[in-house]
């Protein structure tokens, strides 16, 4: 069984964090909250999301698994005003999700979870560098890099205690350096990896501009980005595989 | 003769109520105000509009008839700021309408009324149910139904004293029930009819979200929707023919 | 050498005044400020712009000449917030412009000035009429004319002391008359010329709606429009060649 009430804002933020990578996903309806893991079709970008039961107005679940179309659910959540509550209830018989918003009842056909791409294991990497940075700074770096290139290098210089972003275009370059004073936190360690800007742009859409993001980096290793949603009651991790350096 | 001054807001609201159904229309310039009746090319949706002389800053007319392109008139009215006055004067000789907005003079060629589709008679139906509802609730129902289907059922359950909206898609459904407490008024009588959502979406664009709409319904009968414009000095009626139920 | 700091607003306004006519331009880095002159590929519209050194937070230059892509520079300037400062520094060796916005460094490859269309001489015309008008009134006239035609006549009637705008379409006409009381200033002299609306629409985009524009007109002569940018520390002149009257 699954029966929950959640604010439209929290529901939308949750769905947006996953829909930047995939169109459909499996949602684990655990007793302690929702859990979603998904990887994009090219196996380059992954998301791992948990939304605690406490992020809901009310929440009851006993460990089921459902498959959903994210675009459909986002459309429905979009019908609600910012502060409005959305009521979700699973009909186990018909495998439909009943969604109520202020008298309006939407019956959503679920997708067979077995027909959805398998959930990835997010590898437990021991990455040498971690920075904690404002979401707005990631946004700025991604938008600037996008003006000149389709890939972006992220790195940490252990000696200089600098986090840097590099994008090299055919004629123009973009460079951003943030020292300890510009960052919320820095655990220095040499790191440098090249990433596809398309993926980072998609992930950037879901990263709250006014929140903190912890970024783990290595030498030609994936980047992991952790941030909170739902006032700390939800946790999202994005992982992005590096591109092979062309030099 | 025809000579009038009207606020840009009132003019725009008037034109928008008709342009959702047709591109051109005849305007009756009666002594007591303007009158427009029009039906869409498929004979499915009709509009009947009256704008009293009192809705104008000044108004003089003696019963003429003109044909206009609504898009042209809307473009011109769109040049004015919200509070600005629009001066209209018919030149009987040239069959042109002179429109002045703060020194700017626009000369609009009229259309021969005989070349415009004939005006419909809005049948005087004796419909068993009437609800009075907020325009915002119609908007909500139409937008929700649009997510799943291209048609929508509107009905009243006399016994339960409920107005309901149903839209059934291939996989998902939308249902909305509003009881006496959710409505401004309810005259219960059994009613249920299916309508094309495309037409209702167009009509919805012209319905003021913050105003009242009186909706008359029957069993497989047209729906009539009445609302006021121009602070009560204008009356609009939309009529929409039902679709054949496919069950 | 060239090294300057300027507010993002001032930089954007400057670039926009030129980019409405051309994609690339030469910028003269004089000791007393920047100077740009450019003509569109069809030799119909010209711009002459000067931005005084005093419009910058700091400014050092010794008479160099650079060629730039306006779209690129506008994109970069668009990364800054309204109040933010943009630091510009020319690297003479590499012929690149280093642009810094709050830690973000952009390296822009310059264009060989010899590859950019030659700068025009703006002829020193002795035009018989000058009006000074609000930018907002030019905007209104251009938008109204655009509804009916692709050309626009601007003129002054010396006897009536009127500035007028005429646009004649296939069926509809637009006419605007502004007398001495509606204008900021009027030096009457008979003038009447026809212009391409496409060019005037582009120039209108760069004309500040809340500022004054001095418009010089003659009989079948080019129009000159002068306005200030950067709080009076920059001057822009647009010149537009007339179209042959088709009557």
UniProtKB/TrEMBL annotation, chains A, B, C:
One of its GO terms (biological process) is regulation of DNA replication. It comes from the Archaea. Residues 6-99 form the Proliferating cell nuclear antigen PCNA N-terminal domain. InterPro entries: DNA_clamp_sf, Pr_cel_nuc_antig, Pr_cel_nuc_antig_C, Pr_cel_nuc_antig_CS, Pr_cel_nuc_antig_N. One of its GO terms (molecular function) is DNA binding. Keywords: DNA replication, DNA-binding. CDD domains: PCNA. PROSITE patterns: PCNA_1. Pfam families: PCNA_C, PCNA_N. Residues 123-242 form the Proliferating cell nuclear antigen PCNA C-terminal domain. Homotrimer. The subunits circularize to form a toroid; DNA passes through its center. Replication factor C (RFC) is required to load the toroid on the DNA. Belongs to the PCNA family. PANTHER family: PROLIFERATING CELL NUCLEAR ANTIGEN. Sliding clamp subunit. Responsible for tethering the catalytic subunit of DNA polymerase to DNA during high-speed replication. Sliding clamp subunit that acts as a moving platform for DNA processing. Responsible for tethering the catalytic subunit of DNA polymerase and other proteins to DNA during high-speed replication. This is DNA polymerase sliding clamp. The gene is pcn.
